[in-house]
Design goal:
4-stranded mixed beta sheet; 26% helix; UDP-n-acetylglucosamine1-carboxyvinyl-transferase, Chain; alpha/beta
């Protein structure tokens, strides 16, 4: 049975964007690496971020979880493991990839594994990069795939990594780099996938005090003289989740205000608002509030996955909805 709900009239909504999962993952790991205490405000509590948090606890990090904040006692780049540690990251590829280089900062080897599906997701390019930086990698089942055992020391130096499969290979190296024995230079031979997620990584790293220089997405240079310092850090709202609320304003007409968003965020899905402007919407912001005021009358120029909500209606539909 096909059900076509009728189009509703003009809307006037105020909602709060959920916290960003990408920012939460990175803040957890960087806070754990840092010196002193980190308090993460408005974190996203989700299965994936809990897996990251629990893995850090298994590596010896002290973490206190409250309803609206997470308090982390950093390990200053040296995880106090007492024996070989097994980290089962289930279905969280982000957790597994971002945590893998931390095995070179542990007192004992770390085994990273996950679900059956996770064991089919490649990690070879990251493993090869870690070998070049002083690590020892043993694949325990299939070459280039989890489960894998990571040991050794993060010596640093120059490394070339293929980020075409996942930008997380690059992000994971960048996050761990300030704790290498020497400075780290990461060379990317071809344009990496999902470049905006690298920007998110660098945004969090710099917020905690790291020194990173870059040549676009081709080269990154990390000093080991500026390491992470604990701080109070607020997780910004997620633009990808918010796109559905913005689409309501564009399709129905009226106004939707989404709170907890950073207007100049490096999140790639912030460009969704540019599409709304091209369609005739008016977008204004005040502080961390982003408000699209809708006049729907132009087609969308392209179709990134985050824009899919708008394609529930034909972009050429008329007459226009005006406020």
């Amino acid at each position: 049975m096909i059900v076509t709900p009728p189009r509703t009239g003009s809307v006037d909504l105020v909602v709060t964007a959920p916290p960003s999962k990408s920012y939460t993952h990175r803040a957890l790991i960087i806070g754990a690496l840092g010196t002193g205490t980190t308090t993460i405000l408005q974190p996203l509590y989700a299965q994936d971020t809990r897996l990251t948090m629990n893995a850090l606890i298994m590596l010896g990090v002290t973490i206190t979880v409250n309803p609206d904040q997470i308090i982390i006692t950093g390990c200053s780049g040296k995880f106090p493991t007492r024996d070989t540690t097994l980290l089962n990251l289930d279905n969280s590829g982000t957790s597994l990839r971002l945590l893998t280089p931390l095995g070179l900062l542990c007192s004992h080897p770390v085994i990273l594994t996950g679900s059956q599906r996770m064991q089919e997701r490649p990690i070879g390019p990251l493993a090869q990069a870690l070998l070049c930086l002083g690590g020892t990698i043993d694949f325990l089942k299939n070459e280039g795939y989890p489960p894998l055992k990571v040991s050794g020391h993060l010596q640093g130096g120059r490394v070339i990594v293929d980020g075409s499969i996942s930008s997380q290979f690059i992000s994971s190296l960048l996050i761990a780099a300030p704790y290498a024995e020497t400075e780290v230079e990461v060379i990317i031979p071809s344009p990496p996938a999902s470049q905006s997620y690298i920007d998110i990584t660098l945004d969090v790293m710099r917020a905690f005090g790291a020194n990173v220089t870059r040549d676009e997405y081709a080269r990154f240079f990390m000093s080991n003289r500026k390491q992470y310092v604990g701080r109070t850090y607020t997780i910004e709202g997620d633009y990808s989740s918010s796109s559905y609320f913005f689409a309501i304003a564009a399709i129905c007409g009226g106004r939707v205000t989404v709170k907890n968003l950073v207007p100049d965020s490096v999140q790639g899905d912030r460009r969704f608002l540019d599409a709304l402007r091209l369609m005739g919407c008016t977008v204004t912001h005040a502080g961390n509030r982003v408000t699209p005021l809708t006049c729907f009358h132009r087609p969308i120029p392209s179709r990134p996955s985050a824009w899919s909500p708008l394609w529930q209606k034909h972009p050429q539909q008329s007459p226009a909805s005006a406020i």
